[in-house]
Amino acid sequence: MSEKEEDYLKVIYELSKNKGYVRSIEISESLNVKPASVTDMLKKLQDKGYIKYEKYRGIVITESGERIARKIVHRWEIIRQFFEIFGVNEENAESIANKVEHYIDDDSFERIEKFVKFVDSFKENPKWLEHFQEFIKSGKLPDCDKIQK
């Protein structure tokens, strides 16, 4: 699946959550592309079985399209969280995630996902993460307790 196809499918999935369908003009506005480009892509996505598109009636994502879109959204969310852990501001983290989600291999993504889950598990005692944040700001290693084996 191409990067553009993934972007369209993700937008269709997100926009259709509320009412179950989406109009092509909404996709055009969301992706900032011309309506004719949307029409061309909708035909491609329909030919692949990811959406059902009827002119003037709206676009509905199919079960297979939704499964792929959920995977894309999940990858994007994990990658965004990963960069936010490192102190990247929300806007930049979202922008980076939009790019990385298309190119990251499964093994690398799985490691990032495990890291994000690992960090989330320390919300009660984020001392090491606080030390890391201090290091990012100052460039100096903070005094911290060593982990005993």
Q: Would you mind describing this structure in some detail?
A:
The protein has 2 domains: 3-61, Winged helix-like DNA-binding domain superfamily/Winged helix DNA-binding domain (Arc Repressor Mutant, subunit A); 73-138, Diphtheria Toxin Repressor, domain 2 (Orthogonal Bundle), CATH 1.10.60.10. The protein contains 7 helices and 2 strands, in the order αααββαααα. The chain has helices at 3-16, 24-31, 35-47, 63-85, 90-103, 106-120, 127-138; strands spanning 51-54, 58-61. The protein has a two-stranded antiparallel sheet. Helix 2 (24-31) crosses helix 3, helix 4 crosses helix 5 and helix 4 packs across helix 6 (106-120).
Oligomer class? single chain
Number of helices: 7
- Taking pLDDT < 50 over at least 5 consecutive residues as the criterion, the unreliable ranges are none
Radius of gyration: 20 Å
Structural class: mainly alpha
What composes the largest sheet? 2 strands, antiparallel
The helical percent reads 55-70%
Say how many strands there are: 2
**Second CATH tier, the architecture of the largest domain:** Orthogonal Bundle
Number of domains: 2
- By CATH, the topology of the largest domain is Diphtheria Toxin Repressor, domain 2
Mean pLDDT score: 89
